Every structure is written in structure tokens, then in C-alpha cells.
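Slide 14.
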Amino acid sequence: MPTSSVTKAGLALILLSATATAATAPRVDTSAEAANVAISRLIVKLAPGKDSGALSATLERAGRASGRRLTPLRQLATGGWLIQAEDSAGSAALLGPDETARLMHDVARDPSVASIEPDRLLKPAFTPNDEHYVLQPWYFRERVGTNTAGAWHYSTGAGVNVAVIDTGIVPHSDLAANVLDGYDFITDAAAARDGDGRDANPNDEGDWYAVGECPDVPGDSKFSGWHGTHVAGSIAALANNASKGIAGMAHHAKIVPVRVLGRCGGTVSDIAEALIWASGGAVSGTPVNANPASVLNLSLNAPGSCSTTMQDAIDAAVANGAVVVVAAGNNASNVDYYTPANCEQVVTVAATDLQGQIHPYSNYGDRIDVAAPGQALSTIDVGTTVQAGEGYRIYIGTSTAAPQVSSLAAMILAEGPFTPRQVENLMKYNGTALLDCTFDAVKSCGWGLIDALHTLRAVGAGYDGNAVSTPIPSFFPKPTYFENTANYYVPATGLYASSPNTVWGQYGANGPAGAIVNFKLAVRGTGSVNPRDFRIALVGVNGSTIKVLHDRGTVLTTTQSINASAFTGDGIWSLVAKNFGTANNVYIDSWSLSFPGGGGPL
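Slide 15: predicted structure.
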């Protein structure tokens, strides 16, 4: 079987990676101090063989010394203990960074304490953008996009559950049929805004907050972003549903919404137990997950090292067979300083721009595994605080890149059983190297941009991710026939209609010199098409007119030869019809492109 060797930066890097050791979380985790965040809870992990009896005395001693009461709330599914700092009245007490550090070091004097960390807040990793863009070319283009349209001929993620561990979900007609039962893991009722703590309803109640409501950003306010629904739609919004809305990249996968982010963000303790539950693990006081997920998407982050609690949860999820996909973050900084993207056993995702280069806001570094386009039009609610009705909006950020990688992971898993490491490797080895960052020793974007088509073709050819290799493009025949049979209404009096047609599988080659285009205009009801009323053109991927096929002449020639050798092959081609007449019942009925080298669909 033809193969080509694929390395990120040569054999030296492979040998280095093979001998590298995993990063170890510090015993006293003060890595979030620089963020100047006030917290009220700590997570203490005991050394093997030690019980909570010894911990009680340590907490009482440290509490007296600090003037705080340290109360154990519960044992987490990771094995650690969640501790709350309280004032003399028994209410939660906010601890500043210096007080937190002193208290943690005091508790850690007890040798039975293996590690201690703040139960820090994590935030969605996104930035909203103009909601009026309506195209998503990054899904359909090779080298600057994910090359997805061709991959749909091989897999759409059917039979795979993807957990979106985020703000929850809102009702949306373009998504609801692909949403399974999930869970709300937010413990704090005020942050959850649903009147209670954890429950079986992952409904997104809105994550807006006013100035002064969030201790980590006391001078800020924000509107609700419906972030979890946006991520979910990127993965599994319905396709072919009466031209409604968008198509999710893995539109036959199912979403398991797991709510962990509310007002002001979400805590490590809640997120860690959500990871375990979503992958099929047991969490005390929570019913067994009836829909365990094979892919977990975390489009969230916070400054600091990967804590013991977070790493333990990720390890448990991977042991349960789940691929854990994490957004790198939007700080234009090294990903080493942001969690959970800097944890082990995760697929860390950077974001690229429309030119296929690492985006200026994206985090970068050696811990990046792959990259994906950092913008997506997807499902949201239009409310600025509470829900007000469904809509769509473009968001930009690494949190829109991550769900595209989660989608590809689901598409791979739909084609056969693979381990999390095999899925990660298949995405790495079959992607597209990006010259501006793949080989950059500092601003690395990992192995480059994911390529869904080449990855799924490699899976179909028997590649399993166990070897650093990929099929060469010439191993696969190029598809030669592309058709759109959907009807597009052509408005009267000088307006136009555009019918898209996705060309795929050309591996960067331009179109052929001898392509054939065939089109058909149709009338609904009475009357006929008057050729003198219409101008019809074939438009290429970059918006350039390849050929004017008809310009208000007396004869409509519906089958023509074109020379497309100067135009990009892969991407969305369009047939554009402009109606200068008054007939308001004319449609583009269908059209097709045939490339030489064969006939009929591949």
C-alpha cells in the first residue's frame, strides 16, 4: 500500500517525543495566582492509604491559624476532597490569592496530603463576531479549511455520542433531533440560575452577569452567549432538513449536553466530575449516564497549570475510551500556561484564519496537537440574558475550532473501533502542514490543519494511526462528477440566484481544461423560460467567473465545455442565474460538473 512518511519536524522530534515524560502537577498548585482570582473552595487529594480522619485535624489546625473555618463538602469522583472556606457565620468566604497560597501551604504541611489546589473558575474560550455572515467556506476547502464535504461520502458520525461540556443547551429546531439526555453539574445554585444545584436538566439558563457579580472580573459585565448550543450545532446541527440553517460537521452524531458553566464560569470540581460522568464513569449522587460519550468537547479554559484533579478526571475519561478534545485558548500566548489545554492525554486544538495560518488570538506551543478554522456560524438563542428564541451567529475562537476536531473524531469512530490515541494520531498524520506554524519552534500549531477527507480515506484504506504514515494522494481516484439537484428560485426584475456545488477530492489541483457543465432552468406552473431574460455564469471557488454560459441570447445551450485549468478545484463552485424579465416562477432546477477521467459519482 503506498505511503508517505509524515513527521512534524523530522525524526529528531519523534525520538524526543517518545522519551519525554509527562508533566507533573505541583503538590501545592499556586499556578493561578497571577490571574489574581479570589476563590472560596480548595481541592485536597490524600496520599494513598490515608483516610479523611487525618484530614479533619489538619483542616481544623489550618483554619484556626487563618481565621477561617475549612469545611469538607464532599469527596469527588477523582478521589479528592472539596473543601470550602467559611467565615465565622458559616458562609462561604472569598480568599484572595495571597491568603489562598498561605492556606494551601499550611494544609500541605501534613504529609498525608498528596496535593492541594484552588477550585478555580474556567471560562468559555470564545469571542463573538458579526452575526450576519452566512457562508462557512472553511468547512469545504482544502488547505485552508477542514475539507469536510468530501468526507461526508465516507462518514457523518452516525452512532457516536459527543458530550459538549459547556453552558448547557437551549431548544433549537436545527439541533434538537440530535440531542440526547444530559446533566447539569453546576453545584452552586446561584451560578446555575435554576433554583437548585445539580439536576438532570442541562438547560442553559444564560451566563450573563452584571458589573460586580463575578469576583474574578469585578469591573466587567457580559451578555449570555449560549456557548454550549453554538458548540453543539457546529458538531451535529441537522443537515438536509428543508434548507434550514446550517449543517453540523458530524451531523449524524448525537450530542450529550453536560452543563458546567454558568454565571461567572465553572469550577474545576464540577468540570472534573462531569468528564467522568460523560464518559460513562460513576459519580456519587448522580444517576448513571444512559448515553456515555466517546468524544468529550471542552471549549473552556483558565490560566494555570493542569491540576491534579483535572488530570485525574481526564485520565479516567480516557480509560473509559473517550477522546478528550480541548480548545487551546485565545490569549495569543503559549498554551503551557492554560488549563486544561496543557493537560496530558488531551487533543489540544489551535485556531487558524481564512488564509490557513494560525490566528493571531490563538494560543500556540509544543502542546498543540492539531489546528482547525477558528470561526463558525452555528446555533444560538437570540436572548441577551434569558432565552428569547432560536437564531444563528458566527463566533470566533479556539472554542469554535475544537468542535470541528471533535466532529472529525466522531466521524472516525463511526467507521470502526479505535482507541483515543489512535483517533488522535489519525487526525495528526492525515492533516495539512501549515508553513507559518507547523515547523515553528515557538509558535507551533502542532501537526497542522485537520483534513477530514484525507483522514476518512486513510481509515477506509486500513490505516489505524499506529504508524507515522499516511496514504499518498495518488492512491485514491479523484471524483469526477458533482451535482446539485436542489431547486433555487430566480427572482424577477434584475435579481439573481446562486446554486452551490461542492467539488472535492482534487488534492489541491486546479480544475481540468475539458470540464463539462450541464444546467436546467424550470418553470413552476404555466409559462416557459424566455432565454432573452437570463444571464447565466459559472463561478469558481474564489468568486471569479469561469465562464458566462448564457447572456440574454435567443438560444439556451444547457451543456457546455469549459476550461477551468486556471481555477482552484476543491471548494464551492456556483451556477449564478440573473433574471432581467418579469416571470416570477423560474428556478434553477439542477446542474452538474463532469471532469474528464471517468463518468458518474465516485
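Speaker note: The chain has ten helices and 29 strands.
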